Amino acid sequence: MEAVSQAEWTSVEAYLEAEKCSDIRHEYIGGVLYAMAGASDEHIAICMNLAFALRNHLHGTACRVQITEGKARLRLAGEDIFYYPDVMVICDPRDKDRYFKRYPKVLIEGLSETTEAIDRREKFLSYRQIETLEEYVLVAQDKIEVTVFRRANHWQHEILTRPEQELKLLSLNFALHLKSVYESVKI
């Protein structure tokens, strides 16, 4: 997804109200909106594969899975930030707002040429500040490559590149072979 800046400052309240009826999703960073472009078929398939597998695994628990339309809200250096993670797992009972979540346990971003640098640097640094975040996952769409960062491992990365390897989300007691992550994706 490609971000395009809107230079005008917007309040959090105006942003949240406008997003309810906008045809285009916008991320919000310190009052500035960034329009998000559409995703590729590969991106959509990967995110759906992960979200469905997680939803099935978490069925009957207090955890919920959101995909693409759910916003994560952060407050960093006195600025409000809203991102749209591709897949978000929320387990914290404090997360009651209908339009954004503050306490995700797992965040997953599908990488593209236009978003990879932001997902690997800006979002990674920002997301690490979320007190409840246990795992952050980056999934390439042009090759089999999944990068997992874990709070329990001091945010050191683990890179998976073979279809028989398993993506393990230890905080959720979840495992999924990469061949299932990439099901229906031609690489």
Tell me what you see in this structure.
- With 187 residues, the protein is of the alpha+beta class.
- It contains four helices and 13 strands.
- A six-stranded mixed sheet has the order 4-7-8-9-10-11, with helices on both faces.
- A hairpin with a 4-residue loop joins β12 (166-169) and β13 (174-177).
- The protein is globular and about 45 Å long.
- Residues 1-5 have low confidence and may be disordered.
Terminal Cα separation, in Å? 19 Å
Largest sheet: 6 strands, mixed
Q: Count every beta strand, where a strand is a DSSP E run of 2 or more residues.
A: 13
Label the structural class: alpha+beta
The helix content is: 10-25%
Identify the strand order in the major beta sheet: 4-7-8-9-10-11
**Order of SSEs, N→C?**
EHEEHEEEEEHEEEEEH
Q: If you average the pLDDT, what whole number results? A: 94
Runs in which pLDDT lies below 50 for 5 or more consecutive residues are 1-5
> How large is the share of residues in beta strands?
25-35%
Compute the gyration radius: what is it? 16 Å
- So how many helices? 4
- Give the CA-based shape: globular
